[in-house]
Amino acid sequence: MKTARTHSPNIPVVTQEMQESSLQTDMHVRHHTVREASAYCKSKHGYPVAVNTLNKLRTYGGGPKFNKCGGRLILYAEHELDAWVRERLGDVLTSTSAAKTGEAA
Q1: Highest taxon of the source (predicted)?
Q2: What pLDDT sits at residue 21?
Q3: Burial class (CB in 10 A: 0-12, 13-18, 19+), 53
Q4: Whole-number Å distance between alpha carbons of 34 and 53
Q5: Which of 24, 28, 36, 44 has the largest CB neighbor count within 10 A?
Q6: Nearest to 74 by CA among 88, 86, 63, 84
């Protein structure tokens, strides 16, 4: 985050414009409930993942990162779901033999 000039070298001044731009970037992150996250993975990436699978992975590990709000509400950020699915899908291959040699497209 940029800081504006200050009167004292030790105390940065944060302008109203800086606060609003920081807030806007945080507000643009789209979050999904567990059911919505399941549907999102299927519709955007073609990667089917059941609600129960997300619940189990959240308990035992290995699932996408999530936020817990108010004690019970689980929310997944879209960028976390995207990263998790890309990790699970792996590299794009040009042939089945490329998988054995580790060649990616």
Answers
A1: Bacteria
A2: 43
A3: middle
A4: 10
A5: 36
A6: 63
Cα 98 to Cα 2, 47, 86, 102, distances in angstroms: 46, 22, 18, 6
State the residue for tokens 């794009």. 92
Query: Tens digits of per-residue pLDDT, 25-83?
Result: 456 789 999 999 999 999 999 999 999 999 999 999 999 999 999 889 999 999 999 99
Instruction: For the beta carbon of residue 45, count every other beta carbon within 10 angstroms.
Output: 16
Inter-residue contact 63 to 74 (CB < 8 Å): no
Phi and psi dihedrals of 8, rounded to 5?
Answer: -115, 135
pLDDT at 14: 53
Torsion of CA 74, 31, 78, 18, to 10 degrees: -130
Residue 10 token pair: 């030790």
Domains of the chain, first to last: 28-89 (1.10.1660)
